[in-house]
User: Fold this.
Amino acid sequence: MKPTRAARQSHALSAARSRFARRRAPRRGMLWRSLAFPANLCPRAMTPPSPPSRLRKIALLLLKLAFCAAAVWYLSDKVTYYDYVRLGSDPDRPLRLLSETASTLVVSDGPDGQSRTVPRNELARREQLGKGQRDIERGIRHLATTADWNWAALAFVFLGPTTFVLAWRLQLLLATQEIAISFRDSLLLTFAGNFFNFAMPGTTGGDIYKAYHIARITHKRTEGITVVLLDRVIGLVSFLLLAAGTILAFWRTDLIGFYGRWVGYLTLSFFLAAGLFFSRRVRQWIRYDALLTRLPLGDKLKRIDDTAFSLRFHRGSAFLSLITTMASHFLIVASMYFTARSLGIYHSTLHTDTHLFWAVLLAAVVGFLLAAVPISIQGFGLLEAVFYKVLVDGGWATGSQMLALTLGFRLIQIAWSLPGVVVPWLGFAKPARQELAQVDAPILPQ
Assistant:
């Protein structure tokens, strides 16, 4: 039985609608182009995160919050809000200081909060005090209200040039891959990256932001994103070199402790691995290129590897980047030193032959390396653990002074990152959350 004319017309109309629907359906990768996002930036399709991915993110966030909570609990009996004193009659029992004059102290004594007046000559002597103890221990409130603003201004000024050094380093490393970017654009991206790193939750938002925009403005997207990683690696190498020198200088002292020796071993392992990575003989012996091609996404991994290995042929640029980075890290240490001086930290009761600057240098390089471990928010707890070991156990500071130092330095970092707020209005718009989620960024010190 032949189909009727009406049935044939209905069938033709249905086929035409089907063809039209197929033409209107977004093809693979269409969504990337509609968002002006580099399609080959990441092999994954832009789909909503799967339930396991969400669970991993939630679990990581809970881990970070738990670590921060544990750090707060640990510091709760070592950091005080009010001022306390220790008397020679019982130096292990701190008494809250209510008021003071040139010759007397009014302290709160007893469970009922009764006050009594004691002369200053009853304060504990230096030989009676343990690590991190003082005859008068100032609390966070006193430290914040009586900080020396001259030293604080120096700390602010010395940290400023580091942003410009990082911007120049990024421009120099991009030039090794024949990716042209002006110093202005590099500086804007660096300011914005610092804002996402220091003023927002997390530690890698700035790297994702820079990677996105570098990939957007160049046809060498894989190489551009790899340079963001290498830019961080240069910062890591600089810190490792500084750490190696300071740890070697203080190896026979009790200043570095467990953390310092652990970083010393890490430094040795890193440079050994770097030597193997850049060795042509080792690559030929283990058939390195063949191994890469067998891995998933081997072609992209090969381009990333070629970008990193190409620094071997740009030794001048790599060396210049490293030297300027080490100079910027000395500025960071100097800023932390001036912050410490503004809080009244200037000499040790135990290490009278060691200058405070070297103690801050040791604490900073080891602390920032450990703070790069992604188990905390902004490295809180890890940085404080190292500074407590070096400065408090070393007799330079009390627990309250140590915490005021680390928090005060973070505030200076945030202050210098605030210009990054306006960068999205200067041609570098903030990407959508779905776009940022496609870029994996390193977690390394700058």
In short: Residues 20-48, 440-444 have pLDDT under 50 and may be disordered. The chain has two domains: 84-137, 150-436.
